[in-house]
Structures are given as structure tokens and as C-alpha cells.
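Thread: quick sanity check before group meeting

JM: Hey all, I'm pulling together slides for Thursday and realized we never actually wrote out the predicted structure for the chain we discussed last week. Dropping the sequence here so it's in one place. If anyone has concerns about the input, flag it before I start.
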Amino acid sequence: MIMTTSASHGTTPTDPQLSKADGELPRPAAELDELARYYDTHDTSSEMEQSHWVDPRPMRTTSLRLPADLIDELKERAQEQGLRYTALVRIIIENALRDSTPETTELAKINDRLARIEDALTRHPQSD
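JM (edit): ok, ran it. Output follows.
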């Protein structure tokens, strides 16, 4: 959830992503240090009273049937990245959808066909 306030009360963090899967900070370290100093020295209770909580993106629950070994691997990778495995699954799906354009999909199909042709030729070489 994100806390939003009116513009008259200054800026407050609204970045919903507290940690990134790639290990980078969501904001520059100097900015995070400045925010930490601000919140360590200021009373923000009045801002919170005038705020309301909003979900940045409405979520729906879904169910997937996945092999147990795949779930175990997802959990291991997620733990390495400091994430819940369900968050990692969501990141993987979002990245796949974002990176899946008609051009990349068509290129993947072509590469797959070429790999099958190459495999067939190496298994059954033509003799002259």
C-alpha cells in the first residue's frame, strides 16, 4: 500500500517497491539517507491523519498448479532475493509479458525452427 498526502504537507515516499529483484535500491542511496534523516527528526503523525491508503495496483488472487520441484526452486531463488516466491512469480510473468512483443515472439519461433532443423541435420546428415 502507498500513503498519499496533500501537496501542502511536503513530499512523502510513494514508491511501492521497497526492494528490487535485481538488488538495486529503489532510489539513490543519498536520497534514501536524506529521507531517513527527515523521518528520524520530524513528527509525521499529522500527515498520516490527513492521508489515506491506496493500493497502487489492484490485485486478484489466482491459482496455478506447478510441479513441486519448480515451486521449491522458485522459493530458493526468491529467498536469495529477499522476496516471497509469489512475488517472484509475479515479477517473472510481468517481465515475460513486457518482453513478449509480436516481433520477439516471431523471432523466438524462427529460432526454434532453425534449432529443430539443425538438430535434424546433425542427427541425419545428408549424403551426396
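AS: nice. The radius of gyration is 24 Å. The CA atoms of residues 35 and 103 lie 42 Å apart.
JM: adding both to the slides.
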